[in-house]
Design brief:
Chain lengths: ~280, ~675
């Protein structure tokens, strides 16, 4: 699919209502980050995914404006249109929560339910170390250690080192080698210059709060209480502002859908089935 | 004729009567949730008690409305045929909603004949969704219709009809309940209903089905002899927005016969407002946790359960034990600072039910357990809420009848290791119960034996609190195994567990001194333990005080009412001391010269372990006390059994004189029971 000269690669799996759209997150990874969800949900639902601008099969535009959150939200709508999906359950991870919120707040009739995982939202709560580091993104402190790696100069010097460090912080649970390795691999499908171009301001605190208030569909926040990227209180606040529910994964880090896929899938499945009076309830006991 | 209604698991929070054209309809409201559910009446052969297993569960989250049909329950039995027309029923439902101030409901009906559909079709703004259980809608043929035409012998008719309603084996209680409700009306009333206008021809029914716009769940049993097995799918196919849920192996009334699963299905369909915040802990991050469910009938279980828990914590110091418990068990747990799960307050009192079932010095314990069915369902749903919301490594149920029975009926709900403890095996008939009681007890035993044979994986360990010799002789019933053989095959034996260290009271003189009992007085303790059933026995023993004092001049009588009996209900002459709850009662029992007790196992075995003389009075018709406990005490050569009916103040005084201060030589109770039980359980952690 082409949108304003940027190609967006999207995929559709399975069939069944309601459709579920798994949104892209930060372009450091692509739609393979939903690999544990796709086959499970495609057995009952139409599942849509697309690669973010800047990674996977989608284009890598050189204009920072092409990476605004509104662009990602518009990509999602365009994918839904292309797939002839009127309304879907949206699932957004981390940075993807911002684009999900734009859709749920400004295109209510397209969203049946909203699920946010470790949502990276600008709220009053104290941000994580990653966001703090991001405020010094263009200042070269000359260090390639810890969160000082979250820096354009450091990325240019040692992109792989950053990616490895970053995902060690995403997956703080012991024994996460495979999850880290996967993500590092996807991270290396793009490069420092692309991510530097994509490093644009988010939707801002005022708009975030306003969008939360506009949401009308059922909302579920899923958040690890040991999330080292987005502190857990942010998820709590997001649930409160959207009048949604929160399921806390105690002992979990940032990406529960990758590290605890079975429980996450059950939680998501339950959320979808519990959307009022779904008559997919048949069966045998 | 109406027998006393059994204890409800929940009583209405509101209700009253609506009246139209001089006919009064009784309705009830339970709970006060934002969303409402109307549990419709069905054919007036039964009334609103048919929802007894749903009401307590649903009322926690929803406003639940019920009403009795014209012709049964507390509603009128009008004498004109037209008063029973279908449109009257639909109209009654709307009037009930209006009286309750409820704008919109989910309607649940059993064997509904279109009165339910008419609500959805003609009042779509009032009906949010519907659940139709085995609908009585003639879109398929109704089997066996001609079998239900002869109503001359009303009881025989009801018996045959409900036997067909519940063809699942071991459905005696469901059939008995329904027949009881049928006996609250009669064949004349029923005939008026049958003659009334119900427009039940297929074209009318199909038109109604086409008119239903709300979401509908149809529940259909695959062994339904009343509506036929094809009914559910045909009805679901005729409704636009519908789903079919089949209960395989079920008859016509799964909401009564498989109440746990039906409740879960209903809640899932309606969708509860889940708690705003829930928590799931990663497997690796969890502490080891056990949930202990201790039988609340008396205090005998909790004493041994805390002893087991203590030993278990010695073996697994990182283990956290939580208790799902109710009064009077909580009195002991709170005193020890144990962790009581907050959902415990939602449990319905089994002790209060037992008390309600008792009569003077009598408790028909087997029937009382049967008549506790809706309390057991309700309490199991609480247990399920707890174990589905939180993760435990282990569930321990000490005579937790609800947990054990419904896990075997719903084995897919087992998500942790599970240990069952009991001190008796086998429901036994009382001699005067006749053939019917023999049949019923054998049927219950057979169901238990089938449960264990079919689902051996449910009980990871089954612990018999005692030795093989403590098991009564005889069979579970005709054609069933010998109780001892079967129990030996299926249980671990850990010996009796008194819950105390006998060394504590080894120096009796010092103990008496500490407790304020002089060496020159003869102390007679009278107690019924934690039971609420015992006021009459206590009073009768009190009446023997004066003649006994003549025979034993240095007699000191102390009556302990216990946590469930008000001491003010006892009248005692000068010289008799009345105490309410006695902390560490077992130490007083160890110090006394004679105890007079009920036939409960725990107290009798404490006295046995301490080698004290005692007189025990089994509750009449209490098979456990009369047969199982009696057998065990005879094995230990302990105690003197007396019958409440024969005990006059004089005979009791004579017995006190003979027994008090006597040196006894009982078979010893091995003190290692708690440690052995704990080591069996610890293997699972």
């Amino acid at each position: 699919m082409d949108r304003g000269g940027v190609s967006i690669r999207w995929e559709s799996y399975g069939r069944g209502d309601p459709p579920v759209l798994f949104l892209p997150t930060w372009s450091i990874v692509h739609s393979r980050c939903w690999k544990h969800q796709i086959p499970d949900f495609a057995r009952r639902h139409r599942v849509l995914t697309f690669d973010p601008r800047g990674n996977g099969g989608s284009g890598r535009p050189w204009d920072p404006a092409a990476y605004s959150e509104d662009q990602f939200a518009a990509d999602a709508l365009a994918v839904m249109d292309a797939a002839a999906v009127e309304q879907a359950v949206l699932v957004g991870l981390s940075l993807g929560a911002q684009r999900a919120l734009i859709l749920a707040g400004e295109h209510r009739n397209r969203v049946r339910g909203l699920v946010l995982i470790g949502p990276l939202l600008e709220l009053d709560e104290r941000p994580g170390a990653e966001r703090e580091a991001a405020t010094r993104f263009t200042n070269d402190v000359g260090l390639d250690e810890g969160w000082d790696r979250y820096n354009a100069h450091s990325w240019r010097r040692d992109y792989r080192g950053f990616v490895e460090f970053f995902f060690s912080q995403v997956f703080t649970e012991p024994h996460s080698t495979k999850q880290i390795e996967d993500c590092v691999g996807w991270g290396l499908e793009t490069n420092a210059e692309t991510l530097i171009t994509a490093e644009v301001p988010g939707i801002g605190a005022a708009r975030t709060v306003d969008l939360c208030a506009r949401v009308r569909c059922p909302v579920l926040v899923v958040h690890g209480d040991e999330d080292a990227i987005v502190p857990h209180p942010i998820g709590m606040r997001a649930a409160e502002l959207t009048r949604g529910r929160i399921v806390t994964f105690a002992g979990s880090g940032h990406c529960v859908q990758a590290r605890d896929p079975v429980r996450f899938n059950l939680v998501l499945r339950e959320f979808i089935v519990a959307l009022p009076f779904t008559t997919e309830r048949g069966g045998r006991w | 004729m109406r027998t006393r209604e059994q204890s409800r698991a929940r009583y209405p929070d509101g209700g009253g009567y609506i009246e139209r054209d001089g006919v009064r309809i009784a309705w009830e409201r339970y709970g006060s949730g934002d969303r409402a559910i109307l549990l419709m009446p069905t054919w007036e052969i039964v009334h609103s008690r048919m929802w007894k297993c749903q009401i307590p569960f649903l009322a926690g989250n929803f406003t639940v409305l019920t009403f009795d049909p014209r012709g049964n329950g507390r509603s009128d039995r009008p004498d004109t045929v037209s008063a029973y027309d279908r449109n009257q029923r639909t109209h009654d439902a709307i009037d009930v909603l209006n009286a309750a101030g409820v704008p919109r409901v989910t309607v649940v009906s059993w064997c509904g004949g279109g009165d339910d559909l008419a609500l959805a079709v003609h009042h779509p703004d009032r009906v949010e969704a519907m659940v139709l259980i085995a609908p009585d809608l003639v879109v398929t043929e109704t089997p066996n219709e001609e079998r239900y035409e002869h109503m001359e012998d009303w009881r025989a008719f009801a018996q045959a009809f409900f036997a067909d309603n519940f063809p699942e084996p071991h459905s005696t209680k469901q059939i008995e309940d329904a027949v009881g409700w049928a006996m609250e009306t009669d064949a004349v009333v029923i005939q008026r209903g049958l003659d009334a206008a119900w427009d039940n021809e297929e074209p009318e029914v199909r038109e109604l089905l086409r008119g239903v716009g709300c979401p509908v769940l149809v529940v259909q049993g695959s062994e339904d002899l009343i509506a036929g097995t094809a009914r559910g799918s045909a009805v679901a196919a005729a409704i636009r927005n519908s789903a079919l849920l089949e209960f395989e192996g079920s008859g016509h009334g799964p909401h009564l016969r498989d109440a746990v699963r039906f409740n879960l299905v209903l809640r899932d369909f309606i969708g509860t407002s889940e708690p705003r915040a829930t928590r799931w802990t990663r497997a690796r991050s969890r502490r080891k946790r056990a949930l202990y469910v201790s039988s609340p009938i008396g205090l005998g279980h909790v004493r041994r359960d805390v002893a087991i828990a203590d030993k278990l914590r010695e073996l697994h110091p990182d283990l956290e034990v939580e208790w799902l418990a109710q009064h009077p068990v909580t009195t002991v747990l709170e005193a020890r600072g144990e962790r009581i799960h907050p959902a415990s307050v939602q449990l319905v009192s089994e002790s209060a039910h037992m008390q309600a079932e008792s009569n003077e010095h009598e408790l028909h314990c087997f029937q009382a357990l049967r008549r506790m069915d809706e309390i057991l369902v309700s309490n199991f749903m609480v247990f399920l809420d707890v174990v589905q919301a939180e993760q435990y490594d282990l569930w321990i149920g000490d005579e937790a009848w609800d947990v054990d029975y419904y896990l075997h009926e719903n084995p897919e709900l087992k998500t942790a290791a599970y240990v069952w403890l009991t001190d008796f095996v086998g429901y036994l008939p009382m001699a005067d119960g006749g053939k019917h009681e023999e049949f019923l007890t054998a049927d219950y035993n057979a169901e238990m034996i089938e449960h264990i044979a079919r689902y051996p994986r449910v009980r990871d360990r089954a612990i018999f609190v005692g030795d093989p010799d403590d098991i009564v002789p005889g069979r579970f019933g005709p054609g069933l195994p010998a109780i001892r053989d079967w129990t030996e095959q299926h249980f671990n034996f850990v010996g009796y567990i008194t819950g105390f260290d006998p060394d504590d009271s080894a120096d009796r003189a010092a103990l008496r001194d500490e407790l304020g009992y002089a060496s020159d007085e003869k102390v007679c303790l009278v107690t019924v333990g934690g039971s609420g059933v015992g006021t009459r026995l206590l009073q009768r023993v009190i009446e023997s005080f004066e003649p006994a004092k003549q025979l034993v001049p240095d007699l000191r009588m102390i009556v302990i009412a216990g946590p469930r009996i008000d001491p003010a209900a006892l009248s005692a002459p000068e010289g008799v001391e009345i105490r309410s709850y006695q902390h560490n009662l077992y130490r007083h029992l160890a110090a006394c010269d004679l105890a007079i007790v009920q036939g409960g196992l725990a107290t009798a075995m404490e006295l046995t372990a301490n080698q004290r003389p005692f007189i025990y009075f089994p509750l009449k018709h209490h098979f456990e006390q009369c047969i199982h406990v009696h057998h065990r005490l005879r094995r230990h050569k302990a105690g003197r059994r007396m019958d409440y009916d024969d005990a006059s103040p004089e005979t009791l005084a004579a017995a006190i004189d003979q027994e008090i201060g006597r040196t006894v030589d009982y078979r010893a109770v091995d003190p290692g029971g708690a440690a052995r039980a704990a080591s069996v359980i610890a293997e699972l952690l």
